[in-house]
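Reader question, answered in our methods column.
A reader sent in the components of a multi-part assembly and asked whether the whole thing could be modeled at once rather than chain by chain. We filled in our standard form and ran it. Here is what they sent:
COMPLEX SIZE: two components
ENTRIES:
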Amino acid sequence: MKPLLNIIEKQSGAAFTLKKNDILTVIDPMGKQVSDMVLFNADDYKEKISSGKSLDFEENLLLTKGHNLWSNRSRKMMHILEDTNGRNDFLLAPCSPETFKIMYNHNGEHPSCLGNLHQHLQPYGIGIDDIPTAFNIFMNVQFNNDGKLSVLPPTSKAGDYIRLQAQMDLLVGLTACSAEDSNGGTFKPIHYYIETAPEYTNRKLL
Amino acid sequence: MKPLLNIIEKQSGAAFTLKKNDILTVIDPMGKQVSDMVLFNADDYKEKISSGKSLDFEENLLLTKGHNLWSNRSRKMMHILEDTNGRNDFLLAPCSPETFKIMYNHNGEHPSCLGNLHQHLQPYGIGIDDIPTAFNIFMNVQFNNDGKLSVLPPTSKAGDYIRLQAQMDLLVGLTACSAEDSNGGTFKPIHYYIETAPEYTNRKLL
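And here is the structure of the entire assembly that came back:
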Protein backbone atom coordinates (compact mmCIF):
# COMPACT_ATOMS: atom_id res chain seq x y z
CA MET A 1 0.00 0.00 0.00
CA LYS A 2 1.33 3.42 -0.92
CA PRO A 3 1.92 5.49 2.20
CA LEU A 4 -0.27 8.52 2.79
CA LEU A 5 1.24 11.85 1.80
CA ASN A 6 0.94 14.43 4.58
CA ILE A 7 1.02 18.15 3.89
CA ILE A 8 2.38 20.75 6.31
CA GLU A 9 0.94 24.06 5.12
CA LYS A 10 3.27 27.06 4.85
CA GLN A 11 4.40 28.54 8.18
CA SER A 12 2.88 25.69 10.17
CA GLY A 13 3.92 22.39 11.78
CA ALA A 14 3.00 18.83 12.70
CA ALA A 15 3.79 16.19 15.32
CA PHE A 16 3.51 12.42 15.02
CA THR A 17 5.05 9.21 16.32
CA LEU A 18 7.26 6.65 14.59
CA LYS A 19 8.04 3.09 15.60
CA LYS A 20 11.64 1.85 15.51
CA ASN A 21 12.66 1.10 11.89
CA ASP A 22 9.84 3.18 10.38
CA ILE A 23 11.13 5.40 7.57
CA LEU A 24 10.23 9.08 7.38
CA THR A 25 10.56 10.90 4.05
CA VAL A 26 10.49 14.71 4.15
CA ILE A 27 9.96 16.38 0.78
CA ASP A 28 10.46 19.96 -0.39
CA PRO A 29 7.60 19.98 -2.95
CA MET A 30 8.32 23.38 -4.53
CA GLY A 31 12.02 23.95 -3.76
CA LYS A 32 13.92 26.33 -1.46
CA GLN A 33 11.97 25.52 1.68
CA VAL A 34 13.28 24.48 5.12
CA SER A 35 11.79 22.00 7.60
CA ASP A 36 12.89 22.07 11.25
CA MET A 37 12.75 18.63 12.86
CA VAL A 38 12.97 17.74 16.56
CA LEU A 39 12.94 14.22 18.01
CA PHE A 40 12.01 12.78 21.39
CA ASN A 41 12.21 9.23 22.70
CA ALA A 42 8.51 8.25 22.51
CA ASP A 43 8.76 6.48 25.88
CA ASP A 44 10.66 9.20 27.76
CA TYR A 45 10.59 12.76 26.45
CA LYS A 46 13.62 13.73 28.57
CA GLU A 47 15.69 11.96 25.90
CA LYS A 48 15.79 14.19 22.81
CA ILE A 49 17.78 15.08 19.74
CA SER A 50 21.11 16.77 20.54
CA SER A 51 23.06 18.89 18.10
CA GLY A 52 26.09 18.80 20.42
CA LYS A 53 26.14 15.00 20.61
CA SER A 54 25.40 14.52 16.90
CA LEU A 55 28.16 16.89 15.70
CA ASP A 56 30.57 15.26 18.17
CA PHE A 57 29.89 11.64 17.21
CA GLU A 58 29.60 12.30 13.47
CA GLU A 59 32.65 14.63 13.55
CA ASN A 60 31.01 16.90 10.99
CA LEU A 61 28.97 20.10 10.86
CA LEU A 62 27.11 18.92 7.75
CA LEU A 63 25.04 15.81 8.33
CA THR A 64 23.68 13.97 5.30
CA LYS A 65 23.31 10.43 3.89
CA GLY A 66 25.08 7.88 6.09
CA HIS A 67 25.10 10.03 9.21
CA ASN A 68 23.07 9.54 12.37
CA LEU A 69 21.13 11.94 14.57
CA TRP A 70 21.99 11.30 18.24
CA SER A 71 20.23 11.98 21.53
CA ASN A 72 21.41 13.78 24.67
CA ARG A 73 21.85 10.24 26.09
CA SER A 74 24.33 9.34 23.35
CA ARG A 75 21.97 6.99 21.52
CA LYS A 76 21.12 6.96 17.82
CA MET A 77 17.64 8.35 17.13
CA MET A 78 17.64 8.39 13.31
CA HIS A 79 19.87 7.20 10.48
CA ILE A 80 19.87 9.20 7.22
CA LEU A 81 19.26 6.75 4.35
CA GLU A 82 19.02 9.21 1.46
CA ASP A 83 19.39 12.96 0.97
CA THR A 84 18.91 14.17 -2.61
CA ASN A 85 19.72 17.81 -1.77
CA GLY A 86 22.56 17.11 0.66
CA ARG A 87 22.64 20.37 2.63
CA ASN A 88 21.09 20.60 6.07
CA ASP A 89 21.86 22.67 9.15
CA PHE A 90 22.30 21.56 12.74
CA LEU A 91 23.71 24.79 14.21
CA LEU A 92 20.83 27.22 14.61
CA ALA A 93 17.90 27.01 17.00
CA PRO A 94 14.37 27.13 15.52
CA CYS A 95 13.23 30.65 14.70
CA SER A 96 11.13 32.08 17.54
CA PRO A 97 9.09 35.27 17.98
CA GLU A 98 12.27 36.87 19.43
CA THR A 99 14.22 35.89 16.27
CA PHE A 100 12.06 38.25 14.25
CA LYS A 101 12.51 41.07 16.76
CA ILE A 102 16.29 40.63 17.15
CA MET A 103 17.36 39.53 13.66
CA TYR A 104 14.65 41.05 11.46
CA ASN A 105 13.73 44.13 13.53
CA HIS A 106 10.12 43.01 13.12
CA ASN A 107 7.68 43.89 15.87
CA GLY A 108 4.32 42.30 16.40
CA GLU A 109 3.10 38.81 15.62
CA HIS A 110 5.06 36.51 13.30
CA PRO A 111 4.65 32.76 12.87
CA SER A 112 7.78 30.85 13.99
CA CYS A 113 9.10 27.30 13.92
CA LEU A 114 9.44 27.29 17.71
CA GLY A 115 5.82 28.40 18.08
CA ASN A 116 4.61 25.85 15.54
CA LEU A 117 6.63 23.03 17.11
CA HIS A 118 5.29 23.94 20.53
CA GLN A 119 1.70 24.12 19.30
CA HIS A 120 1.87 20.57 17.97
CA LEU A 121 4.05 19.07 20.74
CA GLN A 122 2.15 20.62 23.64
CA PRO A 123 -0.61 17.94 23.50
CA TYR A 124 2.17 15.41 24.23
CA GLY A 125 3.22 17.37 27.31
CA ILE A 126 6.30 19.03 25.77
CA GLY A 127 6.91 22.55 27.12
CA ILE A 128 8.38 25.33 24.99
CA ASP A 129 11.61 25.30 27.04
CA ASP A 130 11.98 21.58 26.32
CA ILE A 131 12.29 22.06 22.55
CA PRO A 132 15.96 21.64 21.58
CA THR A 133 17.97 22.91 18.61
CA ALA A 134 16.35 21.28 15.60
CA PHE A 135 17.86 19.39 12.68
CA ASN A 136 17.06 21.94 9.98
CA ILE A 137 16.38 19.93 6.84
CA PHE A 138 17.31 21.71 3.55
CA MET A 139 18.56 24.77 5.52
CA ASN A 140 21.60 26.38 3.91
CA VAL A 141 23.83 27.93 6.57
CA GLN A 142 27.24 28.80 5.18
CA PHE A 143 30.35 29.35 7.31
CA ASN A 144 33.74 30.73 6.42
CA ASN A 145 37.15 30.02 7.97
CA ASP A 146 36.58 32.70 10.61
CA GLY A 147 33.36 31.03 11.68
CA LYS A 148 31.15 33.77 10.24
CA LEU A 149 27.67 32.36 9.54
CA SER A 150 25.25 33.38 6.82
CA VAL A 151 21.81 32.00 6.10
CA LEU A 152 21.31 31.60 2.36
CA PRO A 153 18.28 30.31 0.40
CA PRO A 154 18.20 26.51 0.29
CA THR A 155 19.76 24.74 -2.68
CA SER A 156 16.86 22.26 -2.71
CA LYS A 157 14.83 21.92 -5.88
CA ALA A 158 11.18 20.89 -6.18
CA GLY A 159 10.93 17.22 -5.24
CA ASP A 160 14.17 16.98 -3.27
CA TYR A 161 13.77 14.75 -0.23
CA ILE A 162 15.53 13.19 2.74
CA ARG A 163 14.76 9.68 4.06
CA LEU A 164 15.47 8.88 7.69
CA GLN A 165 15.01 5.61 9.55
CA ALA A 166 13.95 5.66 13.21
CA GLN A 167 16.46 3.90 15.49
CA MET A 168 14.02 3.91 18.44
CA ASP A 169 10.33 4.71 18.94
CA LEU A 170 10.08 8.46 18.38
CA LEU A 171 7.89 11.49 18.82
CA VAL A 172 8.67 13.84 15.91
CA GLY A 173 7.99 17.56 15.50
CA LEU A 174 8.29 18.96 11.96
CA THR A 175 7.66 22.38 10.39
CA ALA A 176 7.41 24.27 7.14
CA CYS A 177 9.73 27.12 8.09
CA SER A 178 8.40 30.61 8.84
CA ALA A 179 11.64 32.61 8.55
CA GLU A 180 12.22 34.80 5.48
CA ASP A 181 16.02 34.31 5.44
CA SER A 182 15.80 30.52 5.58
CA ASN A 183 13.73 30.12 2.43
CA GLY A 184 14.58 33.23 0.43
CA GLY A 185 11.36 34.98 1.44
CA THR A 186 9.13 32.33 -0.12
CA PHE A 187 6.85 30.55 2.29
CA LYS A 188 5.98 27.11 1.05
CA PRO A 189 4.60 23.84 2.36
CA ILE A 190 6.52 20.70 3.29
CA HIS A 191 5.32 17.20 2.47
CA TYR A 192 6.13 14.01 4.35
CA TYR A 193 5.16 10.37 4.43
CA ILE A 194 5.90 7.42 6.67
CA GLU A 195 6.79 3.91 5.55
CA THR A 196 5.87 1.52 8.28
CA ALA A 197 8.50 -1.05 9.18
CA PRO A 198 7.53 -4.58 8.05
CA GLU A 199 7.26 -5.85 11.60
CA TYR A 200 4.63 -3.19 12.31
CA THR A 201 2.55 -3.36 9.12
CA ASN A 202 -0.22 -5.17 10.92
CA ARG A 203 -0.23 -3.02 13.99
CA LYS A 204 -3.30 -1.06 12.94
CA LEU A 205 -5.24 -4.31 12.77
CA LEU A 206 -4.37 -5.28 16.31
CA MET B 1 39.49 43.34 48.38
CA LYS B 2 41.13 40.89 46.01
CA PRO B 3 38.65 38.21 44.96
CA LEU B 4 39.23 34.67 46.16
CA LEU B 5 40.88 32.35 43.65
CA ASN B 6 38.99 29.07 43.30
CA ILE B 7 40.65 25.91 42.03
CA ILE B 8 38.87 23.18 40.08
CA GLU B 9 41.12 20.14 40.37
CA LYS B 10 41.87 18.14 37.23
CA GLN B 11 38.96 16.07 35.87
CA SER B 12 36.50 17.64 38.28
CA GLY B 13 33.91 20.45 38.38
CA ALA B 14 32.18 23.15 40.40
CA ALA B 15 28.85 24.98 40.57
CA PHE B 16 28.14 28.43 41.98
CA THR B 17 25.81 31.40 41.56
CA LEU B 18 26.44 34.87 40.14
CA LYS B 19 24.40 38.02 40.54
CA LYS B 20 23.64 40.16 37.49
CA ASN B 21 26.72 42.23 36.57
CA ASP B 22 29.14 40.02 38.53
CA ILE B 23 32.24 39.20 36.50
CA LEU B 24 33.56 35.66 36.22
CA THR B 25 37.17 35.10 35.18
CA VAL B 26 38.13 31.58 34.09
CA ILE B 27 41.88 30.93 33.91
CA ASP B 28 43.91 28.17 32.30
CA PRO B 29 46.73 28.15 34.87
CA MET B 30 49.10 25.71 33.08
CA GLY B 31 48.00 26.00 29.42
CA LYS B 32 46.22 23.64 27.01
CA GLN B 33 43.26 22.90 29.26
CA VAL B 34 39.54 23.15 28.52
CA SER B 35 36.70 24.25 30.79
CA ASP B 36 33.09 23.37 29.93
CA MET B 37 30.63 25.98 31.19
CA VAL B 38 26.83 25.73 31.43
CA LEU B 39 24.49 28.49 32.61
CA PHE B 40 21.00 28.51 34.09
CA ASN B 41 18.75 31.42 35.06
CA ALA B 42 19.18 31.35 38.87
CA ASP B 43 15.45 32.01 39.34
CA ASP B 44 14.15 29.48 36.79
CA TYR B 45 16.40 26.61 35.70
CA LYS B 46 14.24 25.91 32.63
CA GLU B 47 15.98 28.91 31.07
CA LYS B 48 19.50 27.83 30.14
CA ILE B 49 22.42 28.52 27.83
CA SER B 50 21.66 27.65 24.19
CA SER B 51 24.29 26.99 21.57
CA GLY B 52 21.64 27.20 18.84
CA LYS B 53 20.39 30.63 19.95
CA SER B 54 23.92 32.00 20.60
CA LEU B 55 25.31 30.96 17.20
CA ASP B 56 22.18 32.35 15.52
CA PHE B 57 22.17 35.77 17.20
CA GLU B 58 25.97 36.23 17.11
CA GLU B 59 26.12 34.93 13.49
CA ASN B 60 29.41 33.19 14.25
CA LEU B 61 30.68 29.73 15.20
CA LEU B 62 33.58 31.23 17.17
CA LEU B 63 32.47 33.33 20.13
CA THR B 64 35.03 35.54 21.82
CA LYS B 65 35.45 39.11 23.18
CA GLY B 66 32.41 41.26 22.40
CA HIS B 67 30.02 38.35 21.87
CA ASN B 68 27.17 37.26 24.11
CA LEU B 69 26.00 33.87 25.33
CA TRP B 70 22.22 33.58 24.90
CA SER B 71 19.52 31.48 26.52
CA ASN B 72 16.86 29.22 25.01
CA ARG B 73 14.47 32.11 25.74
CA SER B 74 16.50 34.47 23.51
CA ARG B 75 17.91 36.52 26.38
CA LYS B 76 21.54 37.43 27.04
CA MET B 77 23.06 35.41 29.86
CA MET B 78 26.70 36.54 29.68
CA HIS B 79 28.76 39.09 27.78
CA ILE B 80 32.41 38.27 27.01
CA LEU B 81 34.54 41.20 28.17
CA GLU B 82 38.01 39.77 27.52
CA ASP B 83 39.46 36.62 26.00
CA THR B 84 43.27 36.46 25.91
CA ASN B 85 43.35 33.11 24.07
CA GLY B 86 40.44 33.80 21.72
CA ARG B 87 39.46 30.26 20.74
CA ASN B 88 36.47 28.56 22.31
CA ASP B 89 34.00 25.94 21.11
CA PHE B 90 30.22 25.98 21.21
CA LEU B 91 29.51 22.99 18.95
CA LEU B 92 30.21 19.85 20.96
CA ALA B 93 28.28 18.51 23.95
CA PRO B 94 30.20 17.87 27.19
CA CYS B 95 32.13 14.60 27.16
CA SER B 96 30.10 11.86 28.86
CA PRO B 97 30.85 8.26 29.85
CA GLU B 98 29.48 7.23 26.42
CA THR B 99 31.93 9.60 24.70
CA PHE B 100 34.79 7.50 25.92
CA LYS B 101 33.13 4.27 24.75
CA ILE B 102 32.11 5.61 21.33
CA MET B 103 34.98 7.98 20.46
CA TYR B 104 37.86 6.50 22.46
CA ASN B 105 36.89 2.82 22.51
CA HIS B 106 37.44 2.97 26.25
CA ASN B 107 35.43 0.65 28.44
CA GLY B 108 34.93 1.01 32.14
CA GLU B 109 34.89 4.09 34.34
CA HIS B 110 36.18 7.42 33.06
CA PRO B 111 35.62 10.87 34.58
CA SER B 112 33.61 13.12 32.26
CA CYS B 113 32.51 16.75 32.07
CA LEU B 114 28.86 15.70 31.95
CA GLY B 115 29.32 13.57 35.06
CA ASN B 116 31.19 16.34 36.87
CA LEU B 117 28.64 18.98 35.89
CA HIS B 118 25.83 16.75 37.06
CA GLN B 119 27.54 15.96 40.36
CA HIS B 120 27.80 19.66 41.20
CA LEU B 121 24.46 20.79 39.72
CA GLN B 122 22.39 17.96 41.21
CA PRO B 123 22.17 19.70 44.63
CA TYR B 124 20.38 22.55 42.81
CA GLY B 125 17.86 20.10 41.36
CA ILE B 126 19.34 19.90 37.86
CA GLY B 127 18.95 16.45 36.29
CA ILE B 128 21.56 14.98 33.93
CA ASP B 129 19.13 15.28 30.96
CA ASP B 130 18.73 19.00 31.70
CA ILE B 131 22.42 19.78 31.07
CA PRO B 132 22.73 21.47 27.66
CA THR B 133 25.62 21.77 25.20
CA ALA B 134 28.26 23.73 27.10
CA PHE B 135 30.30 26.76 26.08
CA ASN B 136 33.68 25.04 25.93
CA ILE B 137 36.21 27.64 27.03
CA PHE B 138 39.69 27.26 25.45
CA MET B 139 38.49 24.24 23.41
CA ASN B 140 40.05 24.09 19.95
CA VAL B 141 37.64 22.48 17.50
CA GLN B 142 38.73 23.05 13.92
CA PHE B 143 36.42 22.76 10.92
CA ASN B 144 37.16 22.72 7.21
CA ASN B 145 35.03 23.84 4.26
CA ASP B 146 33.35 20.43 4.11
CA GLY B 147 32.31 20.74 7.75
CA LYS B 148 34.75 18.05 8.95
CA LEU B 149 35.51 18.60 12.64
CA SER B 150 38.72 17.84 14.49
CA VAL B 151 39.48 18.36 18.15
CA LEU B 152 43.01 19.74 18.56
CA PRO B 153 44.92 20.65 21.73
CA PRO B 154 43.99 24.13 22.95
CA THR B 155 46.12 27.09 21.88
CA SER B 156 45.85 28.55 25.39
CA LYS B 157 49.05 29.27 27.27
CA ALA B 158 49.57 29.29 31.04
CA GLY B 159 47.71 32.28 32.44
CA ASP B 160 45.31 32.79 29.53
CA TYR B 161 41.87 33.79 30.74
CA ILE B 162 38.38 34.79 29.70
CA ARG B 163 36.25 37.38 31.56
CA LEU B 164 32.48 37.20 31.31
CA GLN B 165 29.87 39.47 32.84
CA ALA B 166 26.56 38.04 34.00
CA GLN B 167 23.57 39.63 32.27
CA MET B 168 21.09 38.06 34.73
CA ASP B 169 21.35 36.16 38.02
CA LEU B 170 22.94 32.85 37.09
CA LEU B 171 23.67 29.34 38.27
CA VAL B 172 26.98 28.29 36.67
CA GLY B 173 28.49 24.84 36.18
CA LEU B 174 32.20 24.73 35.30
CA THR B 175 34.71 21.91 34.76
CA ALA B 176 38.36 21.11 34.27
CA CYS B 177 37.92 18.85 31.24
CA SER B 178 38.34 15.08 31.46
CA ALA B 179 38.73 14.24 27.76
CA GLU B 180 42.15 13.34 26.38
CA ASP B 181 41.56 14.85 22.92
CA SER B 182 40.38 18.20 24.30
CA ASN B 183 43.56 18.96 26.22
CA GLY B 184 46.21 16.98 24.36
CA GLY B 185 46.17 14.19 26.95
CA THR B 186 47.24 16.44 29.79
CA PHE B 187 44.78 16.71 32.65
CA LYS B 188 45.13 19.98 34.45
CA PRO B 189 43.17 22.17 36.82
CA ILE B 190 41.15 25.28 36.00
CA HIS B 191 41.15 28.40 38.17
CA TYR B 192 38.37 30.96 38.48
CA TYR B 193 37.42 33.98 40.51
CA ILE B 194 34.37 36.20 40.81
CA GLU B 195 34.35 39.98 40.97
CA THR B 196 31.21 41.08 42.73
CA ALA B 197 29.29 43.87 41.06
CA PRO B 198 29.51 47.15 43.01
CA GLU B 199 25.83 47.15 43.86
CA TYR B 200 26.24 43.79 45.56
CA THR B 201 29.52 44.32 47.43
CA ASN B 202 27.71 44.63 50.72
CA ARG B 203 25.34 41.76 50.18
CA LYS B 204 27.25 39.39 52.46
CA LEU B 205 26.82 41.86 55.31
CA LEU B 206 23.05 42.00 54.91
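What stands out: Chain B has a mean pLDDT of 93. Residues 6-197 of chain B form one domain.
Send us your own complexes using the same form.
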